[in-house]
Write the structure tokens for this entry.
Amino acid sequence: METNPCWQVRRPTRERARDRVLSPDEIQVVWATLGREYEDGLEPVLPPLWPSRPVRLALRLALVTAQRRAEIAGAALAEFDLNARWWTIPASRSKNGLAHRVPLPGLAVEIIREITADGGGDWLLTSPRGGRPIQAHALSTAVARVRQVAGIPHWRGHDLRRTAASGMASAGVARLVIGQVLNHVESGVTAVYDRYGYDEEKRKALDAWALNLNEITSNN
């Protein structure tokens, strides 16, 4: 378009950045809730259309790896090298259009192996309609049902990513490295020339976060 139709139009409300981070106690409850099955006989009773186990495990994976829901939902199995513990998100699927290498902690590898234990298909999470991955909104729908059962209000799928980032920060990980884990785009002239991948630093950061997460959820 030659002109912006919203030019000089005021925003209806002031934009506010979300700052919701799950506490360790909340993480423990959410993690346990993600493991709930209809057969466990625990209270509260699970609602109809409880998310499938692979989808619930994918939400755990989001918390472990700090990656975006769309990138998890659309992941192809060919992107993962579980022996070397790497997940390479191609540029065509990343939000910023840049390929992104995600080091996989042992906990993430365990989750991925469990999701794919039944085999079949080319995707981490195959749509019930077959032949394609699930849509990102399926994870958001799952979060709404998990939130209801967990009894912890006011959190969304993206808050899992923020919680992981905050956990890394509390472990002393530098903001630059956290930004690399999150695949945020850096600004400034230096970013144009700095092509170092920070692979080692990213792995140490996510391994430290996974260790912390293991300690938080050890009773589940």
The CA atoms of residues 55 and 139 lie 7 Å apart. The chain has a mean pLDDT of 90. The chain has one domain: 24-34+49-216. The first helix runs from residue 24 to 34.
